[in-house]
Each structure stands twice: as C-alpha cells, then as structure tokens.
Known about the structure:
Blueprint: E1 11-14, H1 16-19, E2 25-30, E3 33-38, E4 52-54, E5 57-59, E6 66-68, E7 74-76, E8 85-91, E9 94-98
Antiparallel strand pairs: 1-2, 2-3, 3-8, 4-5, 5-6, 6-7, 8-9
This protein binds FE2/S2 (inorganic) cluster.
GO molecular function: 2 iron, 2 sulfur cluster binding; dioxygenase activity; metal ion binding; monooxygenase activity; oxidoreductase activity, acting on paired donors, with incorporation or reduction of molecular oxygen
Organism: Microbacterium thalassium
Family: Belongs to the bacterial ring-hydroxylating dioxygenase ferredoxin component family.
Amino acid sequence: xxxxxxxxxxxxxxxxxxxxxxxxxxxxxxxxxxxxxxxxxxxxxxxxxxxxxxxxxxxxxxxxxxxxxxxxxxxxxxxxxxxxxxxxxxxxxxxxxxxx
Length: 100
Ligand code: FES
C-alpha cells in the first residue's frame, strides 16, 4: 500500500490473496503511524478497516468493540478475543505488511 492511500484516522482492507494470509488484513493510519491487524472482528464478522481509529485504538463499526493497534489486544466488550496483529514496515511512501 501507499501511505497516501490511507487517510489519518482510517483503515484500508488488503485482500488475503494478495498477502497470502488466512484473513484479509486491515492497515490503519493513526496520526501518521501505520498498523496492521486481521480485518475481521473477533466478535462477529465486521470489517475493522471500516472502524474508527484514534489514540492507538480501532473501534469496530458494528458493536463498538475496541482493539489495540499495536498488538491486537481487546480493549473493550463485546469483543473478548484478541485480533491477530501483523508487522508493518514503512519505507518512504511505501507500506509493507509482513504477515504473522
Ligand atoms: Fe466487532 Fe461485534 S462485530 S464488536
């Protein structure tokens, strides 16, 4: 992905087939820092890339479960299971996801 494709406070979804991952991956821009988590919320099946990003947290768009962008740890109910986290390497305008 390119950094300019992801506005601050938002995420984009990268198809699993592109990355060779089991789940699609969401890449987020939180105030110029980039993070990657599995895209599917662990509570039900909402797409976290459509959630709200602020202060190191993404809030699920369906029931407002929250996850830490740094490690995928659950921050609030109704989600109870952490979401998988992936490494992000930023090089200039290029953002590369290294799947776990
Ligand atoms: Fe994400 Fe329910 S689907 S909190």
